[in-house]
Amino acid sequence: MKKLILSLLLLAPLFALAQNQTKPYLNLEDAQRITAAATEKAKAEGWNVVIAILDDGGHLLSLQRMDGVQIGSVEVALAKAKSAVYFKRPTKVFEDAMKAEGGGRIATLPNAVAIEGGLPIFKDGVIVGSIGVSGVTSAQDGIIAAAGIAGY
Amino acid sequence: MKKLILSLLLLAPLFALAQNQTKPYLNLEDAQRITAAATEKAKAEGWNVVIAILDDGGHLLSLQRMDGVQIGSVEVALAKAKSAVYFKRPTKVFEDAMKAEGGGRIATLPNAVAIEGGLPIFKDGVIVGSIGVSGVTSAQDGIIAAAGIAGY
Amino acid sequence: MKKLILSLLLLAPLFALAQNQTKPYLNLEDAQRITAAATEKAKAEGWNVVIAILDDGGHLLSLQRMDGVQIGSVEVALAKAKSAVYFKRPTKVFEDAMKAEGGGRIATLPNAVAIEGGLPIFKDGVIVGSIGVSGVTSAQDGIIAAAGIAGY
Amino acid sequence: MKKLILSLLLLAPLFALAQNQTKPYLNLEDAQRITAAATEKAKAEGWNVVIAILDDGGHLLSLQRMDGVQIGSVEVALAKAKSAVYFKRPTKVFEDAMKAEGGGRIATLPNAVAIEGGLPIFKDGVIVGSIGVSGVTSAQDGIIAAAGIAGY
Questions:
Q1: Burial of C149 (0-12, 13-18, 19+ CB in 10 A)
Q2: Which residue segments constitute the domains of chain D, with CATH numbers given?
Q3: Burial A114-145 (b: 16+ CB within 10 A, else e)
Q4: With contacts defined as CB-CB under 8 Å, which chain C residues touch B67?
Q5: Are chains A and D touching, using the cut-off of 8 Å on CB pairs and a minimum of 3 such pairs?
Q6: Per-chain mean pLDDT for chain C
Q7: Which region is the signal sequence (chains A, B, C, D) (predicted)?
Q8: What value of ipTM does the predicted structure carry?
Q9: Which residues of chain B does C103 touch, with a Cβ-Cβ cutoff of 8 Å?
Q10: For B54, which residue in chain A has the nearest alpha carbon?
Q11: Is residue B1 scored above 80 in pLDDT?
Q12: Running DSSP on this structure, what letter comes out for residue A15?
């Protein structure tokens, strides 16, 4: 398990220290384009979900709840997105680690969510925000989140 | 005991299906139409804001943060909208009451926000949700929120 | 009061939309330089305080508590700094507004602190973080915070 | 009744002044020396981390976030340090216990973190505070925390 986490950390894009000390960021237009791509995939599959987009500080840029989604999915989508941007990694990494270990250690890590459906968003190797999806199965949530990133 | 619970479970759906016992509600399309109307007014005035739309349970249907808005406005817009739907009244009602009284009593009221910019949304006299706006002055936030309602 | 808030908003540096969609940010060296300048002033006056520096998302870059400071000042310094970066304005703006109004409206604004000692930090007109100071009187806290900014 | 309280109040200072009834404590200089030793090890290894030092009441003495560290590590470092001082033991003790047990019981223990990287700090057998480190793998976080203690 330790090896698994280590490998994933090594794969994570490194923080690019811009010479002029600036960093890229998401704007609302980006968030809407990502949400539109995720929504298109969700509709094509007939899956209704909440889609949340956060900035690099973990603050909401946009959120959209499709009709009929359980109200609990609002906070789940937000928590998945928060976990993804706070830890610069997909929530599935924590899910896989908990499954591999068969224990609950990661449940004691503040802000970590170990359910697929949260993905960090990078630009030029720098984290700029995240997407969190909730409403169907966690694997399906993850597919929609990935479709959103593909539309960035 | 098991039988009793079973019987009660079988009776439960009947309550939900009682004739005429329905309530109107907002869907995502409504939320998007209201947000679009509010956004149009905001852009016309050159005001950048967060616009949050909640359902009748106080849960997010949609949120959108325009570029350059202070991050604090995310929670403020949410809190204004929550106050409006929790108390079925504009947040300006609490603002006026606090000004008239000159004291801080209302600040002890759970979920009450006494800053203009939150409005309840009604349909056929029934509350269906709310809008919360934050980003410019509270009076301007209120103008944008009203423009949103007008587009419903 | 409305006029006062409006004027302050107009004075606040506008968000500079960089053409290449990047923004400046604080690093640890900046935070340490700001903290050192604030500490120098605090020591010169014989005032013991907590000094917190946050990034543009409201997350801690550094914190330092001088000896003998009440433990409550840790959270106060953090809250002042959070208010300053969340609302892009000094906490004194909220303090003055509450005094002018004689009421408690601003106490219903999430994350707003109306006690001097929190200041936003800007670079090229863009918010990059904040400083929060607590330990002596709020006016003295404010003097130390300003000394910190001057050292940026 | 008033007299009784008065008498008790008059007696109170005597408890505090009882001979030898003192406890050792960390000051800011200690915290900075511990942080410097941890930082030196972190830099030697090329590991970027958050380093938090708490006093014996679990309140922050100092915190420092190196550049490029995920924002989630701020709360993780604080939580690890809190766990270490609240339970007077390394967070690795909880980690090992959860692994050995294969269950999630410890995740229900308030303030317990079961991820290596938090260490209590003792002086003359008395707990005086703790260090919490987060940013790399938990084993690496633990190495940095130990280097900090060694510098005390």
A1: middle
A2: 23-150 (3.30.450.150)
A3: bbbbbbbbbbeebbbbbbbbbbbebebbbbbb
A4: 15, 17
A5: yes
A6: 90
A7: 1-18
A8: 0.88
A9: 98-99, 101-104
A10: A65
A11: no
A12: P
